[in-house]
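Case 230 in the screening queue. Each case pairs one protein sequence with one candidate compound; here the compound is calcium ion. For every case the pipeline is the same: read the inputs, emit a complex structure as C-alpha cells, and attach any notable structural observations.

Predict complex for case 230.
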Amino acid sequence: MNDKILVVEDEPDILALVSYHLEQSGFAVVPAEDEEQALSAIEQNPVCLVVLDLMLPGIGGLEVCRLLKQNPRTKDIPVLMLTARAGEIDRIVGLELGADDYLVKPFSPRELVLRIRAILRRVQGSDDAEDAQIVAGPLAIDPVGCQVQLDSDPIELTATEFKLLTTLAQRRGRVQSREELLKVVWGYEYVGYSRTVDTHIRRLREKLGTAAEMVETVRGMGYRFRREGR
Ligand code: CA
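Case 230 output:
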C-alpha cells in the first residue's frame, strides 16, 4: 500500500511535529512549505493523503485544496485540512471544497494519526461503519481489535463492558434505553434485568476514569454516549 503523505505547512515547528508523528506511525512524509512545493511534490510522488494547512502564504490552503480537487490526477486523494480558526464557515467551506476532514489547531498528533487512518479506511473501502475506529475526546475505541485507549493508554475492559461501550459509542448522541442495550449487548429480549445495565455502566465508568463523563445518564430514558468531545 502507498503510505506516503504530503504535509503542506509553512510553520516549520508544526511541519516537523506532524512529520515526526506520521513517521512514527509508519507513514512516509513528503513535506511542502508552500503551494508551489506542494503541487510539484504531488506530481512527483504518488501520495495516499494530503495534510493541508489552511493558513498558507500565497494562494492559501483553500485554493490549494481547490486545485487538487479540480485536477483529475489528484482529485481522488483525500485531504485533511488544518486550521487555526474554529469557525463554522471555514469548516463548511473546507468540506464544500472536497476536503475529507479537518482538525482545528492546536490538535493532538495522536488525533491526527487516528483521523488519517479513519479517512484511509473510508476511501479504501476496507471496512464497514461498524468496524471503524471511534475517536471521542480522549477515548479511542477499536471495535475490530477490541481495544480502548484513554489518552493513548490502554484500558482493560471485560467483553461485556467493551460491547456496552461500543454499542453506545456507535450510536453517539442517541439515547438508548436499558431495554435496547440489554437486547443488543446481552441478547435479552425482556425488561426484568435492566439493573444489570446500570451495574455494568457503573463499572465501565470507573474504568473509563477521566473519560467517565462520556457515558451520560439520561433520566428516565437510558444512557447516551456524549456527542461532543470534552
Ligand atoms: Ca500556516
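Case 230 observations:
- The longest strand covers residues 4-8.
- The chain has two domains: 4-124, 134-225.
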